[in-house]
Amino acid sequence: MSTGTDVSLSSYDEDQGSKLIRKAREAPFVPIAMARFAAIVAYGLYKLKSRGNTKMSVHLIHMRAAAQHFVVGAMTLDMGYSMYKEFWAKPKP
To answer: Ranges for the HIG1 domain (predicted)?
Structure first.
């Protein structure tokens, strides 16, 4: 006897690794943005020692702005890629 409220639990069964791989296939630019974000943070920490007489708050604001720039740029590229796949790369029936 089926009540029509059966819910597939397959999305709850996947572990973190397979979920990340699935998301990377759906939106390939997001992992790139995450890697660039981590690289900007690492670069900012490395350059923290040689910032001269620049205030700490100014240095952190510049690093945050650079990291956000890469993330927003990657999201924009991903949106364009998704639109391309959806509207132009589909074969016409």
So the answer is: 1-93
Residues 6 or more apart whose Cβ sits within 8 Å of residue 29? 74, 75, 77, 78, 81
Residue written as token pair 């924009």: 76
Closest CA to 34 of 68, 83, 82, 76: 68
pTM strictly above 0.85: no
Rg over alpha carbons for the chain, rounded to the nearest Å, is 21
Q: Helix/strand/coil (H, E, C) string of the chain?
A: CCCCCCCCCHHHHCCHHHHHHHHHHHCCHHHHHHHHHHHHHHHHHHHCCCCCCCCHHHHHHHHHHHHHHHHHHHHHHHHHHHHHHHHHCCCCC
